[in-house]
Design brief:
This protein has 239 residues and is mainly α. The protein folds into 2 domains: 3-80, Arc Repressor Mutant, subunit A (Orthogonal Bundle); 85-237, GntR ligand-binding domain-like (Four Helix Bundle (Hemerythrin (Met), subunit A), Up-down Bundle), CATH 1.20.120. The protein is built from 11 helices and 2 strands; from the N terminus they run αααββαααααααα. The protein has a two-stranded antiparallel ribbon. A hairpin with a 3-residue loop joins β1 (70-73) and β2. α2 (43-50) packs across α3, α5 (111-130) packs antiparallel against α6 and α9 (184-200) runs antiparallel to α10 (204-215). It starts with 17 loop residues before the first helix and ends in an 11-residue tail after the last helix. The mean pLDDT is 92. Keywords: DNA-binding, Transcription, Transcription regulation.
């Protein structure tokens, strides 16, 4: 199987520029590990595959490089990067700091807004649970992301969610590696339920404690992940 066999065709939205759409498609494949670290992404073949010139492909690859998801070797090749643990730790710090403040904001929302948030969070947890048996990783991950995004929206800091997502490529790949671990998905749901319960009764301290526990889950398994996938981890960043 060639790399192009692992890249689905893309129905382009003619009302949007091509490069961002190619970027989003390739980023999703890298985050989901459909395109593993070390995979070569040939620009000319990508252009032919998507039916585009090489210019939007180049622009998309440069954006991926800015996010640390690929390494571009001029006149040679573009390669999906190894997972950088230092970057993952930095984004974990950023996200935890932001979401602690978001929880504070959510606990003091006007009653009608607070009630609306709680109902939406419950719906996301229902979606997560329904994706467990049989386990659908893609559906589960989307519901997981939606749970957190809902709180950013309630706190009216949507652009911070965009910032966190932009910076989260490394930790998202670690999370995807950790997701198949026995009991991991059920633990994520339990964490979300603990956050929800604390928010529902407006217990800021309990919500913060549940959030810290939840966000630290993947990073606590870095050593195990590195043992299982040694060729996928940037060793210089994990010492």
């Amino acid at each position: 199987m060639t790399v192009m066999d692992r890249i689905p065709s893309l129905k382009l939205d003619r009302y949007r520029q091509s490069a961002p759409q190619v970027f989003e498609a390739l980023r999703g494949l890298i985050i989901s590990l459909e395109l593993a670290p070390g995979t070569v992404l040939p620009r000319a073949e990508l252009a032919e595959h998507y039916g585009l010139s090489q210019t939007p492909i180049r622009d998309a690859l440069m954006r991926l490089a800015d996010d640390g998801l690929v390494e571009i070797y001029p006149q040679h090749a573009t390669v999906v990067s190894r997972i950088d643990i230092t970057s993952a730790l930095e984004v974990h710090f950023l996200r935890r700091s932001i979401e602690v403040e978001i929880l504070k904001a959510c606990c003091v929302l006007p009653e009608s807004e607070h009630a609306g948030l709680i109902q939406k969070l419950k719906a996301h947890i229902v979606e997560q649970r329904s994706s467990l048996d049989p386990l659908d990783y893609s559906r589960f991950s989307k519901a997981d992301q939606a749970f957190h995004r809902e709180m950013y929206q309630a706190a009216r800091v949507n652009r911070l969610w965009d910032l966190v997502c932009q910076q989260s490529g490394q930790i998202d790949r670690l999370r995807r590696l950790n997701l198949p671990a026995e009991g991991k998905t059920h633990a994520i749901v339990r964490d979300h339920e603990a956050i929800l319960h604390a928010l529902e009764i407006k217990d800021q301290h309990a919500a913060e404690a549940a959030l810290r526990k939840h966000l630290s889950g993947t990073l606590s398994f870095v050593k195990e992940i590195r043992t299982l996938y040694p060729d996928w981890i940037n060793e210089a960043s994990s010492e």
